[in-house]
Design a protein that fits this description.
The structure is a single chain. The chain has 123 residues and is mainly beta. It has a single domain, classed as Immunoglobulins (Immunoglobulin-like, Sandwich). Helices cover 11% and strands 48% of the residues. It has one helix and nine strands; from the N terminus they run αβββββββββ. The protein has one helix at residues 2-15; strands spanning 19-20, 33-40, 44-46, 50-59, 66-71, 75-78, 84-88, 94-103, 108-118. The protein has a five-stranded antiparallel β-sheet with strand order 1-2-4-7-6, with no helix packed on it. A four-stranded mixed β-sheet has the order 3-9-8-5, with no helix packed on it. A hairpin with a 5-residue loop joins strand 6 (75-78) and strand 7. The chain is elongated, with a radius of gyration of 15 Å.
Length: 123
């Protein structure tokens, strides 16, 4: 069942158009660690649907970095690559924010995106 679910996600993401989100911003205040791009399959989606989100960063340090995805609604589904996730939209319409944090314990970079959910409760 899990393989079938992942296959469906893969097929859906292959046909979905991707775009850079103009609402994302790198809030970091250093030149060592920066989020350079955040790309999502759609910025407006239906309630209960999946959105593929990927990010890129530049890092001039030598430590291992960690990546954290924090949504204010919905659910994050991690993949084998921490730079790519799927976000399961909630069943309630609205605008949701996902904050991305990359850190090496000394330097930190933040970015965020917003996604509008349609067709759920509250419409």
């Amino acid at each position: 069942m899990k393989k079938k679910f992942l296959y469906i996600l893969f097929v859906l993401s292959a046909f979905a158009g991707c775009s850079k989100n103009p609402q994302s911003a790198d809030d970091s205040e250093n030149d060592i660690l920066r989020i350079t791009a955040v790309t999502l399959s759609q910025s407006i989606c239906d309630a209960g649907s999946y959105v593929r989100i990927s990010m890129e960063y530049s890092y001039d340090g030598a430590k291992a970095v960690s990546i954290d995805w924090e949504p204010d609604g919905g659910r994050i589904i991690e993949t084998y690559n921490p730079q790519i996730i799927y976000w399961l939209a909630p069943n309630t319409s609205g605008i949701y924010r996902i904050t991305i944090t990359v850190t090496d314990s000394e330097y930190t970079a933040h970015s965020h995106i917003t996604i509008q959910v349609l067709g759920g409760q509250g419409d």
